[in-house]
Amino acid sequence: MSKIKSGISSSFTAEQQKQRRRRIWIVPLGFLVILFLWAFIGKRSLSAEDLARGYSYTLYQFPLLNVVLVPVMTAVIASRLCDMEIKGNTLKLLCTLQKRSSFYDWKFIHELKYLLIFTIGEGILVPLIGMFCHFTQKLPLPLVFLHVGTTTLVSLVLLTLQHFLSLMSSNQILPLLVGLIGSFLGLFSMFFPPRAARFILWGYFSAFSPYGMDYDSQTRVMSFYRIPFPTETFVLFILFGLLFFVVCRTVFVKKEV
Amino acid sequence: MGIVIETSSLTKQYGKKQVVKDLDLKVPGGSIYGFLGPNGAGKSTTMKMILGLAKPTSGTVTVLGKTVNSRNRLSILKDTGSLIESPSYYGHLSGRENLQVICTLKQVPESAIDEVLQTVRMEKQQNKKVGQYSLGMKQRLGLAAALLGHPRILLLDEPTNGLDPAGIQEMRELICTLPSRYGMTVLVSSHLLSEIDQMATYVGIISKGSLVFQDKLASLHEHSKARMKLRTTDDRQSFLSLKHSGLPVEIEKENLYLLSDRDEDILHAGTILSENKLGILRLEEQQKSLEDIFLNLTGRSISL
To answer: Which chain regions cross the lipid bilayer (chain A) (predicted)?
Structure first.
């Protein structure tokens, strides 16, 4: 038991040591700044009516922005952490010192750490924007938690893909390109029929959005309505995510270095 | 010390191509085993299979008396250090920080770093970022990483590749000191015969995936004994006369050879030929070099 424990802690510590001077926390922080500016600037001059539905608007807007930002961010995070192994040709050495699966998992967990900075930060941004913009609507705290949870889940699945691609590619351009294309695909998927949109992994942020929006082009008025949580889709997505992780991990573990 | 690394009928096949064929490698403990072969002969693949980085198609690998499998691989490898192909490093970290990562993974105290840095003579460059190191320095750092934790076996795959002559000499000297200094067994691969000749005590020659020679280096040298090339008035008749009198002779490509360079044998051959009224036109000493032996064994040209 203590042997396993020391193996786990050494893998964790080694991963930590590798990240010295990489300043990877700047990536999620940078994306949070972009998100904040994007959301805040658009809400500087809201009417009293808009302020009364400020949080609904924010919780509708954030999943849409996530579709654009998160695929790129997960690609950058995974690439920053995995590239050091590819560039330094370290996989051959590491595979003689630790289990491939352990290396794969701990690297993923460290990427998750940076992802959580973003998703939790996004959760904090919701009341922060409300405070700066003087929203009069009561903060729907359970929906904020739900938003953080679903954003983390969808981001995790995207991170699974990026993590796998970054470790398997000798050149990081490919995974970064996949992130970029995913971002566009996710955006376009919102215009697809709902059934077709379900096949686009990057578009799931909007699938779990707590609010929908109606826009009356004649009166040019937006109204937001609550969308019931798609529990079935959520469960299926979790199952898919788990299966996807296991498949990617198995392919990596079996790959000869 | 007995055999510390042993492979039995080790085979690796990629698609239809057999890269390593029925390899029976035996590395004696405390030796520097030179694993020699032309480029693409299967040296790296064999070393990767020993380390469990590549899965053998068939055959077994035994290290320190234990047959390596996926479950015990890491515990067995705890007693080994390796440097496979190009050096492994984190360019954004200093040399010392790189070694700290390895120490953590090997669960070796960081106090061991100073000793290995001293061994590879890198104390002064330890705080410089490895991205700024020369290839030679990276190789030395790789060797330092392999030495951490005093492994009993060291596997070095072409450790002098890409180094300048001074770097090659330095690396060679370093490797030569390891068995006596730390009691290690070193398995070192190279495509350079001269290099193995200067380092190894045992040698294994691999060609097209098969082991074509394996013994002490001294035994390989025995193959390089000198012989005398004779040209006489009638080579065929001379061959028969010399053979009849018990001298070691052979005819190769219509040339007559006396397979000895001892003075008494040469004198004896001269006397016999003279008695049989056969005249000696030319007498030439021929030394079979290690390169010739290598060529004979592998049937391929060699980098020198």
So the answer is: 24-41, 61-82, 114-137, 143-161, 173-192, 234-252
CATH class in words for B225-287: alpha beta
Please tell me which residue of chain A has the smallest CA distance to B80. Answer: A96
Q: Does B90 touch chain A (CB under 8 A)?
A: yes
Supply the range of the domain harboring residue A126.
Answer: 48-254
Check residue A228 and report its DSSP letter: -
Query: Does the residue A15 lie in any domain?
Result: no
Which has the closest alpha carbon to B293: B234, B220, B238, B203?
B220
pLDDT tens digits along B106-156? 999 999 999 999 988 899 999 999 999 998 899 999 999 999 999 999 999
CA distance A77 to B68: 36
Q: Which of B88, B141, B148, B153 has the most A C-beta neighbours within 10 Å, making it the best mutation to test the interface with A? A: B88
Please state the domain count of chain A: 1
Interface confidence, given as ipTM, is 0.88
SS3 B56: coil
Asked if B104's CB is within 8 angstroms of A17's CB, the reply is yes
> Are B42 and B65 within 8 A, CB to CB?
no
Q: Kindly state whether B55 is in contact with chain A, defined as any CB-CB distance less than 8 angstroms.
A: yes
pTM of the shown model = 0.86
Domain over B3-79+151-221 is classified CATH 3.50.50.60: no
Residues of A in contact with B91 (CB under 8 A): 84, 87-88
pLDDT value, residue A5 = 55
Contact B88 A88 (CB under 8 A): yes
In a domain, A72, yes or no: yes
